Amino acid sequence: SSDLGMIQKRYQMVIHEINRKIFLLLCLAYASISSLQAQSAIPPFKKGERVVFTGNSITHGGHYHSFIWLYYMTRFPDKPITIMNAGIGGESAWDIKDRLDDDVFGRRPTYVTLTFGMNDTGYDIYMKDNANELSGQQIAKSLDSFREIEKRLLAKNKITKVLIGGSPYDETSKFNNFILHQKNNAILKIIDAQRTSAKKNGWGFVDFNQPMCEISLREQRKDSTFTFCRIDRIHPDNDGQMVMAYLFLKAQGLAGHKVSDFSIDAQHSNVVTHQNCKISRLKKKEGELAFDYLANALPYPLDSIPRHGWGNKRSQRDAMQLIPFMEEFNQEYFQVINLEKGRYRLTIDGQFIDDISSERLADGINLADYPTTPQYQQAMTIMYLNEERFEIEKRFREYLWTEYSFLKKEGLLFADNQKAIDKLQEYLPKDFFLRASYDWYVKAMHPEIRKVWSDYMNSIVETIYRINKPVIHQVKLTRMK
To answer: What is the pLDDT of residue 305?
Structure first.
């Protein structure tokens, strides 16, 4: 009987373990499904589209919209679009509502995105005893303003609208002890209202919050101090900004659109398959295979240099460890089957790329993994030009931040005169952020300066769309002795 009891006990333990694993699998499945359900299909940008990204400081100083434009610059070189930053640091829905006409609709957009919620939900209130009550009041105020924004957007029936659920306030990382508990839950309530509005009005919706939380929790199981927002739990660094760009592009249905994809049968000297590219002048001789390659797109360049982060200084490339961007968005696939066994030197336009085994070539390689290819170097030029454009645009955002954050409440919006300067100088000793932006205002208050900057930006974009066209490259595989 004791043996029977032991067997029953072990049986119950096994059943309990099986049930536990099933529960965990169901939780993981639910999380994956809920992430997918959080996104509504949003239309990709059409040729000639004028897109305005509207938001707070995460848009104002962030790169996600610039990373998105870089994708379109390199993937669709013959379909020029314009993407414009309409973020203002520190703003909530009630502030955005008051600048819609000038800063958003005044730019003649055909496509508008809107994100808000980080500032709307408050900060110091979460350290008070009645935090829940105060948080509810903040949310109610934000959604009252959003309903007015909603009416204004509905009146613009020729504009495509997309609501973006904002990136999370990180409450789970242990990089320091300062946490505003329950703040992200308040943000989620605003996101729920956005999702409902988008469904009701037939607008697009994409959620940054939940997928980024899931990535953070996954990474924090390996490193409890992992965060996208190293300095303040609020502002994603460039790895987080790249994740946001990835989520937006994925919601646009662009995953799986390859740079190019081609396969060559070396034994029979023929092209087996080719997608989004042209292979010509294929020649085979003893120990060598050569051909001309013309893609319809460029690989997406990933800047390994951290830029403009909020303290953490992580790079766009760091995001590749967190999301399957290379697999889903940056495949320049090259395969050669039936090669004589051995190692082969790959050169493009005479430039050494790699020494690769015939087995690996038969499996296929991703040329976009090689920053040394001529086509990647061409894309890098586009990337640096786009970065220069971003820098100039950011000057305009600093100028407008000063206008809307300080001069508007003083009745001096766009006065751009000595009275405005005098008023700003009253604020300077007590406002660090104004001290950081003041010099840009002093320059940008002059319309001639703004025109020069605007002309320069336009010149950069024109240059990008002139030089972003793929060219024919000579590819050669030479058997190594």
So the answer is: 72
Q: Are 94 and 145 in contact (CB under 8 A)?
A: yes
Phi, psi for 109 (deg, rounded to 5): -75, 155
For residue 36, give the 3-state DSSP assignment: helix
**What count of other Cβ atoms lies within 10 Å of the Cβ of residue 290?**
15
Which residues neighbour 418 within 8 Å (Cβ) at sequence distance 6 or greater?
none
3-state class (DSSP) for residue 151 = helix
pLDDT in tens, 79-137: 999 999 999 999 999 999 999 999 999 999 999 999 999 999 999 999 999 999 999 99
Please identify which residue in the block is written with the tokens 């509005």.
197
Q: Which residues contact 308 (CB under 8 A, 6 or more apart)?
A: 61, 63, 238
Contact in structure between 301 and 386 (CB atoms under 8 Å): no
Residue 108 backbone zone (phi > 0: left; psi -120 to 50: alpha; other: beta): left
DSSP string, 293-354: EEESS-PPP---S--S-SSS---TGGGGGTS-HHHHH--EEEEEESPPSSEEEEEETTEEEE
> What is the sign of the dihedral through the CA atoms of 360, 362, 367 and 373?
positive
